[in-house]
Write a structure and sequence with these properties.
- InterPro entries: Arylamine_N-AcTrfase (IPR001447), Papain-like_cys_pep_sf (IPR038765).
- GO terms for molecular function: acetyltransferase activity.
- This is Arylamine N-acetyltransferase.
- The chain has nine helices and 13 strands.
- It is α+β, with helices and mostly antiparallel strands.
- The strands form two sheets. It has an eight-stranded antiparallel sheet. A five-stranded antiparallel sheet has the order 1-10-11-12-13.
- Helix 1 packs parallel to helix 4.
- The longest helix is centred in the N-terminal third of the chain and has 14 residues.
Length: about 280
């Protein structure tokens, strides 16, 4: 298989119907379908397995085997697919500040795809898990609220993030989300720092192997649609949506297996499921 087939497989996986042209409307459609069809998941790193960023293996895992992946996998794949579809897309690495106020600069580990359309720059990020934006966001409206089907988002200058400049090294814009009427920092990026594939590989090695990485310590899954987000962290299943929030503790393996296969629609082997549940039982 060659990378020239990635975009075809991507459209088939997402169920995109009709003729395709590289427009903003179609980009939003792709993102909406992506977060519904390709789950955020980290089974490989949680179980100590290899996480590849090579195009053929990404297509096999995310598009054909229904196994999901995390941000470095999602955004490497989408960069390839979007460029094949006629967009001008590239990757940058961001620093994550969501649910934390670090005392030192976080490692650049969150990979996103940026897309140029009609001299404007847009964020295409289906891979941030439980708080990934549900639509394409523009970086040409800094400070302005951008409403998605679920939460409002905005980009601000990092100086407006409320964080000390010492923990924002080389970053330019902070993505924020409004939760319970408060703006919360998500992650910071610098759109001028286009990366090489080797940079993503270094970040991927850290994320998938370091004992300090959340992705080796915790099992994390997410899927979303225009009405709700569904997340799993270890054994806790959460639903957040327009109708409210719900939290449930998975109490046995059968419930865990059913959740993975039906809620997240993932094709995970029985061996991996048993190994994951066994590791979760120890924490």
């Amino acid at each position: 298989m060659t990378t020239s087939t990635i975009s075809t497989q991507y459209l088939e996986k997402l169920g995109f119907a009709g003729d395709f042209s590289p427009t903003l409307a179609h980009l939003n459609t792709l993102l909406s379908l992506h977060v519904q069809k390709i789950p955020f998941a980290n089974f490989s790193s949680f179980l100590g397995g290899e996480v590849s960023l090579e195009s053929d293996q990404l297509a096999q895992k995310l598009l054909r085997n229904d196994q999901g992946g995390y941000c470095l996998e999602h955004s490497t794949l989408t960069r390839i697919a979007l460029n094949e579809l006629g967009y001008e897309a590239y990757n940058v690495l961001g620093r994550v500040y969501y649910q934390g106020t670090p005392s030192r600069t976080p490692v650049r580990t969150h990979l996103v795809t940026l897309v140029h359309i009609d001299q404007q720059l847009f964020l295409y990020d289906p891979g941030f898990g439980g708080m990934t934006p549900m639509m394409v966001l523009t970086l040409d409206q800094i400070g302005e609220t951008q409403q998605t089907s679920l939460e409002p988002f905005r980009f601000v200058e990092v100086a407006q993030s409320g964080l000390d400049t010492t923990v924002l090294t080389e970053m330019k814009y902070m993505l924020q989300v409004c939760i319970h009427d408060q703006w919360v920092n998500v992650y910071a990026i610098n759109p001028e720092q286009q990366i090489a594939h080797a940079d993503a590989q270094v970040a991927n090695y850290y994320i998938s192997t370091s004992p300090e990485s959340l992705f080796t310590q915790h099992l994390m899954l997410s899927i979303a649609n225009s009405e709700m987000r569904i997340t799993l962290k270890d054994r806790v299943l959460r639903t957040h949506g327009k109708g409210g929030s719900n939290k449930k503790q998975l109490s046995n393996f059968d419930e865990f297996e059913r959740t993975i296969k039906t809620v997240f629609q993932m094709n995970i082997s029985d061996e991996q499921l048993q190994a994951s549940w066994g590791k979760l039982a120890l924490t």
